[in-house]
Amino acid sequence: MKSIVFILMSLCFSATAQIDKLEGIWTSPGSSYYTTIMYNVEQNEFKIINFSFAEDNVIPEVVTEVGDDFVSTSLYNKSNDYSVNITYEVLNEDQILCVFEGDLNKKSALTRLSLIHI
Predict the structure, then answer these.
(1) Residue 42 backbone class (left: φ over 0; alpha: ψ -120 to 50; beta: rest)
(2) Does the predicted model carry a pTM greater than 0.70?
(3) What is the pLDDT of residues 85-113, one digit of tens each?
(4) Among 32, 23, 40, 39, which Cα is nearest to 58's?
(5) CA–CA separation, 67 vs 71, rounded Å?
(6) What is the Rg, in whole angstroms, of the alpha carbon atoms belonging to the chain?
(7) 3-class secondary structure for the chain?
(8) Which of the residues in the chain have pLDDT under 70?
(9) What is the pLDDT at residue 117?
């Protein structure tokens, strides 16, 4: 019985560690937008916000589903009536895969933006 509890706890911590890797600021070549993914452990809640200095725009996403290794959201941009569902998956420590479905149907890899703490 103890081994079953240990295995279940290990799987839970492994999934949590994987999903925690989504946290950060992400960018892709050719886009002026940055995607910020934040995770609040105490509330077990994700917040995802896209912003662009060039476009002077902020677009929040609504989290619709959280799995062991992915987060799904919906995004609506009022300025251009653009609507998509997005699934984020960890590829490695510095890249995530975004699958867009809706007004845009494509897959795109985002790279973690390194922040230097002074």
Answers:
(1) alpha
(2) yes
(3) 999 999 999 999 999 999 999 999 999 99
(4) 32
(5) 6
(6) 16
(7) CHHHHHHHHHHHHHHHHHHHCCCEEEECCCCCEEEEEEEECCCCEEEEEEEECCCCEEEEEEEEEECCCEEEEEEEECCCCEEEEEEEEEEECCEEEEEEEECCCEEEEEEECCCCCC
(8) 1-17, 117-118
(9) 62
